[in-house]
Amino acid sequence: MLREDRASTERLGMDVVEMSEGHAIVTMLVREDMVNGHRIVHGGLVFTLADTAFAMACNSETTHVVSSGADITYFYPGHAGDLLTATAAVRSQRGRSVICDVEVRNSTGVIAEYRGHGRVVRPEHMS
User: Fold this and answer.
1) How far is 114 from 52, CA to CA, in rounded Å?
2) pLDDT per position in the chain (127 positions), as tens?
3) What is the pTM of this model?
4) CA dihedral over 72, 78, 80, 85, signed as positive or negative
5) φ, ψ for residue 87 (rounded to 5)?
6) Within 10 A of 56 (CB to CB), how many other CB atoms are there?
7) What's the CA gap between 107 and 124, in Å, rounded?
């Protein structure tokens, strides 16, 4: 799945540092072109980082999960030059429903928390 995700890796420079069943760590260095008019990292990019960590934690060779919704709360801003680290952990998987929490940090601490809701699907339903 990650090989086909050009947006996360090629365009945004994300790196999957760790990935195992129900757990993932993904990093992204905030570049100058990733900040908004307030000179802080664009919230949509923080969300994308968290969403990528969610995908890495929820999917495996045999389980295919797509997002069915997500919420994010921003606590502090990130800035150009920050290395953001998103740590994802699956909290619940019952039937076809999945809940995964992601914490996004910079060098000073937690800047955002994300909760993703996913749905297990058959591979043929993903295209």
Assistant:
1) 11
2) 666 777 887 889 999 999 999 999 999 999 999 999 999 999 999 999 999 999 999 988 788 999 999 999 999 999 999 999 999 999 999 999 999 999 999 999 999 999 999 999 987 655 5
3) 0.93
4) negative
5) -110, 120
6) 27
7) 41
Q: Which residue's structure tokens are 């992204």?
A: 28
Structure tokens at 51: 């969403």
Mark out the alpha helices in 14-125 (DSSP H runs).
43-58
Q: Quick one: tokens of 73?
A: 């709360």
**Type of residue numbered 110:** V
CA 50, CA 116: separation in Å to the nearest integer?
9
DSSP symbol at 41? B
> What type of residue is 31?
R
Query: How far is residue 44's CA from residue 29's CA, in Å, rounded to a whole number?
Result: 15
d(CA 119, CA 127): 15
Structure tokens that stand for 21 in this block: 């069943």
The token pair at 94 is 């019952």
